[in-house]
Amino acid sequence: MIPFDWVEPDSLKEAVSLLDPSDSGVRPVAGGTALMLMMKPGIFVPTRLVSLARIERSYSTICVDGDGGVRVGAMASLAQLERSTDAITRFPLMKRAIRTLSNIRVRNVARVGGALAHGDPHMDLPPLFAALGARVSVVGPDATREIAIEDLYLGYYQTVLKNNELIAHAIIPPLNGARAAYIKVTSRAADDWPSLCIGVRVEMADAGTIRSARMVLGAASERVTRLAATEKLLSAAVPNEATLKQAAECAAAEARFIPDAHGSASYKRELLRVYLPRAIQEALA
User: Considering the entire predicted model, what is its pTM?
Assistant: First the structure.
């Protein structure tokens, strides 16, 4: 392995100052579960790694936000999120979903911020958070900005984050009576990389129609994708069998699928036809 610098700043502000916007070999490292896998075969060769292990403890906490949602520190581990009473009681789907993100050894090490910033379309956390309407607070050298999770990704391993920006928190708004579900489909073990994952958030009107819907696709395409046309079709509709079938066809036509080791594009399209109605039914149940 080629030698590189390793620095451990004591604050998030200092960590940002150590990043170099002009040098792609300078990277922050949180849990390191994905970064180390890229370094071992030489896919990524760092010049400097900025460890976030010693920054303020506030970025490792999970707490209830002022509006009743949940604020998740970027340095909180996936296992910590899985065990968080604040998160699980407000978003019951989260505990089961996180248990399938990876095995327990990875969940103990991997950090929420890293899982969101890495940009791998197969990661489960981005579509899960996007379905819940979450956003991230991003800190740069001069300003802080908030970005909706689904707007964070440009393409395969590409995000809108600048080289000298870091995710500080993820903010998940309260459901306020809405219902949500998350389904992951794998071709191997339950905690393996998915062939497809689908997250839904549905808000019902008093008349038994859908007031609003969020439909988020992951793994089957090159980035986390909101299915806007499908959401529009479901608005003000009665969620009966005919409507769900129509929504499944709309989603299959709307999404842009990519083939990979976990399935062909046509296979993933068929998975979406099957699992989108199931996800909506699971949320409504």
Answer: 0.93
Domain covering 59-172 assigned CATH 3.30.465.10 in the classification: yes
Beta carbons within 8 Å of 77's beta carbon, 6+ residues apart: 31, 107, 108, 109, 110, 111, 112
Given a cut of 90, is residue 198 above it in pLDDT?
A: yes
Q: Are 34 and 54 in contact (CB under 8 A)?
A: no
DSSP state of 263: B
The residue-averaged pLDDT of 217-237 equals: 96
Domain boundaries of the chain, sorted by first residue? 59-172, 179-284
> CA-to-CA distance for 222 and 130, rounded, in angstroms?
15
Instruction: Flag whether pLDDT at 37 surpasses 80.
Output: no
Tokens 């209830």 found at:
64
Residue 271 phi/psi, 5-degree rounding, is -60, -40
Closest among 195, 199, 215, 214 to 257, alpha carbons compared: 195
**Rounded Cα gap, residues 82 and 95, in angstroms:** 5
